[in-house]
């Protein structure tokens, strides 16, 4: 009775590089869904999310937070409310873009900032204050390099 045996010679199998490349998984970044407890029925109080939705929530939170509001991260935020009552000039728009770029670079992981648009809405709230509309074009750092816009109103 003969047994089928396969003899593998030295150097005839997959190389170490080929073995490693087949084991590489897609790198995904996860974070908490914001606001906390929003969907307690579907994902629990501390629901995870990733990709486009996670970046959208993180950037919106960054844009709407004033520096000093977060206890353990006093430099987190963009301080965009300080620009609301200033005359709309090119220097103000440049200051807004520089502030957003610096904060984005320091606090957003998993995405690259491509373009910043700052627009005056011309709308006024109940207190008579001005509003700004900030639109960021962002590219995910994952394999698919998805590009999308994030919009936030600063009131």
Shape: globular
Element-level helix/strand string: HEHEHHEEE
Output the strand order for the largest sheet: 3-4-5
Query: How helical, in percent, are the residues?
Result: 25-40%
Number of strands: 5
- Number of helical stretches of at least 4 residues: 4
Mean pLDDT: 76
Any idea how many domains?
1
Find the CATH topology.
Nuclear Transport Factor 2, Chain: A
Query: Uncertain regions: pLDDT < 50 for 5+ in a row?
Result: 21-25
Amino- and carboxy-terminal Cα gap: 85 Å
CATH architecture: Roll
* Structural class by sheet pairing and helices: alpha+beta
Q: Can you summarize this structure?
A:
With 155 residues, this protein is α+β, with helices and mostly antiparallel strands. The protein is built from 4 helices and 5 strands, in the order H-E-H-E-H-H-E-E-E.
